[in-house]
Amino acid sequence: MSESRAPFETQPAALETAPAPLGSRPKRGVSLFWRTFFFLSLLLIGCIIAWLQTFRALEFEPRAIQSAQQLASLVNLTRAALVHSDSIARVSLVKTLADEEKVRIALREPDDVYLPYDTDTLNRGVTDALQQRLGRDTVVARAVNGTPGLWIGFSIDGDLYWLQTDPSRIGPVTGATWLIWLATAAILSLTGAALIARLINHPLKKLQFAASRVREGDFDATQLSESVATSEIREVNIGFNRMAQRLSKIEQDRTLMLAGISHDLRTPLARLRLETEMSVADPQAREHMTADIEQVNAIIDKFLDYARPDHTDLQRVNLHLVVEAAVFALGSDASVQINIAVPHEIDVLGDAVELQRVFSNLLENARRYGRDPKTGDVQIDIAAKPRERWVLIKLRDHGKGVLPELLEQLTQPFFRGDSSRTAATGTGLGLSIVDRAITRMGGRFALANSSTGGLAAHIKLPRAIN
Q: Topologically, how does it sit relative to the membrane (predicted)?
């Protein structure tokens, strides 16, 4: 086996873009808290608006009638005062009305130009009510000859007059006070919606965290409370705790069982190998029998590797040293060439023994199934580069690759690809062990056919940053 090293920039098998499972982040949806808060907010704001519109609609008619009664009384009192006063007193009366009540009396000319008092529903209601009380010939205007105000046209003994008063006599339905109360109601409603959404979301967040820990193999890290007040949440927590306990027991039994099988099988295998070397005279038969025994030992090792606990303590590991150790452990083979483009300064968070096992399995897989169809040689390229908080690693061969529809199944236990990649005997656990080990270390693993031929293994590991 030959090994060559080249600078990362000039390496012929430089790290390609990682496949979708590694390079792209999953689409983040809206959390349950914000969904609940959003829908509660819409409901409450809709209720506030509906309440306000209902209030306005119910207030329009009473306010219009009340305003019309006051204005009609003002017109009638003014008409009566003018009718029953002499010319001298009438002048004084008009001046007093203008100074004290802000009511101006003016003659109505035939060529006066006025704008009807119909800007909104309330104003139209006031106009109709005034015409019903004072007569259909009553004119209500919001401006006369360009002068704004509340103008009411009436007659005294056939003479036409204008009565001008302040439009504020008809109070608006909404104002600063209503806006303040509306804003206060909206703020209180949104605060209540946030509290309700948080109350609903809090136990689910705990369940989400506990499920993530169980997924990582940490069955005892989080025990959900079984004494919460809500009966549905309490039943869910009890069921989850029992499930986690059962999974923990199953995991412990599996590890113990495989360890026992390994221990019970290795002793007779060792005796069998010793007896084979001592009793079998034919060197070729002895060599084949010894190889079979070694293969059984290797299979037992694979089972034990696959059955390792899911929890791993992460430490700072130099990636270059781990790769070199795995390459050295592969042994010497003249038909295998390994190109390494892993910078010396790259450190990852992981377990050194687990990482060396990962690269050993990948190298062995590439050595077995990654031979060039033309030359029969094996060329393996290993490259790595940091990217923000992660380190992307690529290990590829130059063989035939695999069918695209089989890529996702290669990491399943005991699965083997097409016949071209299963010529050698094995357990079918090598890539499964790699996938489990990378997951235990908080990374991601994916397989893809290289654009230039061969199978590429993509690894994404947390970067150790000072």
A: Multi-pass membrane protein
Structure tokens at 420: 């071209």
The three-state DSSP-derived secondary structure of the chain is CEEEECCHHHCCCCCCCCCHHHHCCCCCCCCHHHHHHHHHHHHHHHHHHHHHHHHHHHHHHHHHHHHHHHHHHHHHHHHHHHHCCCHHHHHHHHHHHHHHCCCEEEECCCCCCEEECCCCHHHHHHHHHHHHHHCCCCEEEEEECCEEEEEEEEEECCEEEEEEECHHHCCCCCCHHHHHHHHHHHHHHHHHHHHHHHHHHHHHHHHHHHHHHHHCCCCCCCCCCCCCCCHHHHHHHHHHHHHHHHHHHHHHHHHHHHHHHHHHHHHHHHHHHHHHHHHCCCHHHHHHHHHHHHHHHHHHHHHHHHCCCCCCCCEEEEHHHHHHHHHHHHCCCCCEEEEEECCCCCEEEECHHHHHHHHHHHHHHHHHHCECCCCCCEEEEEEEEEECCEEEEEEECCCCCCCHHHHHHCCCCCCCCCHHHCCCCCCCCHHHHHHHHHHHCCCEEEEEECCCCCEEEEEEEEECCC
Where along the chain do its domains lie?
2-27+311-462, 34-176, 219-309
Domain 219-309, second-level architecture: Orthogonal Bundle (1.10)
34-176: CATH number: 3.30.450.300
Partners of 156 in beta bridges: 159
Residue 337 near residue 3 (C-beta atoms within 8 A): yes
Calculate the average pLDDT of the chain: 78
- 297-347 residue pLDDT tens: 777 776 666 666 555 678 899 999 999 988 888 877 788 899 999 999 999
CA–CA gap between residue 360 and residue 398 (Å, rounded):
18
Assessment of whether the complete model's pTM goes beyond 0.70: no
Is the confidence at residue 418, as pLDDT, over 70? no
Say yes or no: do domains 2-27+311-462 and 34-176 share a fold: no
pLDDT, one tens digit per residue, over 368-393 is 888 887 888 889 999 999 998 999 99
| CATH class of the domain defined by 2-27+311-462 | alpha beta
What is the CA angle 391-397-399, rounded to 5?
150
